Write the structure tokens for this entry.
Amino acid sequence: MQDQLKIFELYNNTRKKQITKFNSSLKSKYTLTTNYQKVEADFAWLDIMEDTIMYLDNILRNPNRFIINEEEIVKVEQAKRITVDSIKHLAKHTSFIQEIDDNGDVKPSKVLNINKDESYNTYENRFIYTLINNMRTFVEIKEKQYIGSSFLKDDKKCEYQAVTKLGAQKVNINMVITANVDFSKEDGVRNGMSVTQRMEKLKLRISDLTNTPVYVSLAKEHVAKVIPPIKKTNLILKNTNFQYAMKLWDFLQSYIADDNKMVKDKRTLDEDLNIKQMLDDTFLLDYLAINTVNQDYSELDEDSKAELVEDLTNKMIDKIVELNADLPLEKISEVIGDKIAIIKNKKEASLAELERKFNERLQAFTERITEFSFR
């Protein structure tokens, strides 16, 4: 590619008065419409859930639990077993003693019955229970907002009309330019699975977690969900499984509602002077390009011829000054004056010599005619 466009050379060689006339008569208008849309789909939430769910499964398969002692006073025949705690309770509550045999055996009417039961209702388990519910709700929302791919659309359309006059010549342009970008790519592909497939698999794994004994037990008890900030118990701080659970919790808490970065911009321009000036300049360059074809300067009127001569003279003088920049102004004027005088003398001498030779030939031809006689 050339360093300089050919059209620049054409513009620089064009008479300035011609450009001035073109612009002074120019009337133009334009309309530029733009429609820009860009979406960058982000599936970081899906990545972190997939990476964390195995640790949640580890927690629920080996849950934290504690023993609950349920105490109740029952008739002695209803007691499942008599424990040390039952005897201690009876010693403190002698009203429950029905009778004492002669041999010292005590027959109570009622005793303390203690039922021991395991409970999953710990803070750590409720934390995981709440996190799983948040995950399930989050995935449902993302399914409704699902955008499977990033895309970019950038459409531009410019309509330009203009008219101008140069003497008897009328110049018109009616131009439409369009530029379009339409690009899309599928995002979120991982391990050969599309986003849709990954979400379906994730939903199944979350469903498996909700069927574990820990989750089912807590759901039956309608346990209260934990609220931030999360208590940093020893188990949550030191257990690797809970550390991953905390990372997911923090991510969801700081999550912005719309992680799909979307940009939209639709505009119509018709009054921007910079754009209008550039389009007008383009019109001028287009005219100069087509005007290089079949130019005949012999048809120019006197004013146009004078302008052309003046323009060419100025360019020649500019070139002389440029090549002789170190010469004083008086010397340059003297050189130019001498050259003009020499050229004029040459032209006058040429005309005189031509006239002399013509007269000599005419005289010789006349003499031959005089000597001619008919026989």
Observations:
- The chain has a mean pLDDT of 81.
- The CA atoms of residues 91 and 227 lie 45 Å apart.
- The first strand starts at residue 27 and ends at 40.
